[in-house]
Design a protein that fits this description.
Blueprint: H1 7-19, E1 25-28, H2 31-44, E2 53-55, E3 58-61, H3 64-75, H4 77-80, H5 86-99, E4 100-102, E5 108-111, H6 116-124, E6 128-132, E7 135-139, H7 141-148
Antiparallel strand pairs: 1-3, 2-3, 4-5, 5-7, 6-7
Amino acid sequence: MKISLTPELSYLIGLWQARGSQEGVGICGNRRVCEIFLEEALKIGIAKPDKIQLKEDKIYFYHSAYRAFFEEVLKERLERFKYKNEFAAQYLAGVFDGCGGILEDGKGVFFACGNREDEMLLLRLGFKAKKVGKRIIVIGKEEFLGFVSKYLKYFEW
């Protein structure tokens, strides 16, 4: 099965990067974010309704090809999302919907589940980002949210 990366799939990969479950391809946590994952997976056709597993705080489906593809894209994300385009915007929107927020002072945004690869990705795309503990802080809220806002499905700005 040949899977091609699309902007819509990039969003799901970002959401999976932020809240990925151990089982299959899915996420855990906030119920609304789980619903968004389900809606998007069904809309783009990577999951069948009868194959969806729903537990208290997680939703997932088993598909070894998509699981392997998601893992491959995450390993290669510095190359796959190196341009400031819809693919990178959708990926970052997915991560932000999964674990993002606005700083208390209102001057920037953060990713609560940040890692060095996503920090580097943000820097390469021209955002002022810094890893502080487990968070990635992005200074310049308007610039970042302007880039991802039309792809956000959970976070309202």
